[in-house]
What we know:
The complex is a heterodimer of chains A (99) and B (227). Chain A is mainly α. Helices cover 69% and strands 0% of the residues of chain A. With 227 residues, chain B is mainly α. Chain B is elongated and about 75 Å long. Chains A and B meet through helix 1, helix 2 and helix 3 of A and helix 1, helix 3 and helix 6 of B.
Amino acid sequence: MSEHEEHSSHSQRFYISIGIGLLVLTATTVGAAFVNLGPFNPVIALLIATIKATLVVLFFMHVKGASEKLTGAVVASGFFFFAILISLSLADYLTRSWR
Amino acid sequence: MEHAAHNPALLHHFADAQQQKNAASLGMWLFLVTEIMFFGGMFCAYLVYRLAHFNAFAAASQQLSIGMGAFNTAVLIISSVTVVLAVKAAEAGRRKVLVGYLVVTVLLGMTFLVVKGFEYREKFERHHVPGPTFNFTDKFDDNGKQIPVNPKEAELFFSLYFAMTGMHALHMIIGCGLFSGLAVLAWKGHYTPGYFTPIENAGLYWHLVDIIWIYLFPLLYLISRHS
């Protein structure tokens, strides 16, 4: 089955450098938590978490370079429905000014 | 199976091994989407209650150990690297290297669970476990001024903490079992460069559990340090 190049498998070194990148981002987010940035503390923390999750999805889970394009659509739909869940729920709870 | 003698792992309702692999991967991703929605419900509940009881959630969150949480985050990231290297070893047909990475992954998963166990023990000792013995004392700000905290609202934080980290830990236990089984099968030589789909799909599961922790760690431990 070697005539097909399944997901573009990277070198061992590449995966280890992504791992080191994830560890550096973890250290950054812990460091940022000890600095008082006011309302930006949660924003920075979630931004770094999203960068980390994106790295894992694209490179460790091989979504980038997947031979099956449908995989990307399924992944995107998962996060899209999660976004609907969060945004519609908050649109309700954050606008209950009569409480 | 006689017409597929060149690859015994190829089922005859698939045109070729590549199609079979894509179908298995797609099915796994559909399962992972249901997992995102499952944890998504808890993330949503956490978000809504955090906004409703902001001060109590901040005070309760500050009781968690950032050191242990950060250590566990690092352990999970390293385990994700060993998983991806295991898949690579399977692809290259390096059986012993594959078994080695699978075993290291299980050991890292167990390390995570042991640290989590110490965290839970501390919660029991300090009566931070929701229930009749729950106790939460008011917090003090930097100037030593007492800020009253409604213990019922703090209990809600710890309920969500145990529900989310407990469900995540359950996924870790399942993952450790899964990878132990795969290590045995890999040792017996079940996987070849032509067929290692179970390793890949278990890897996808492990990475998703890692991603859930990547979000749990800042949300539970970090974002309320200065509130």
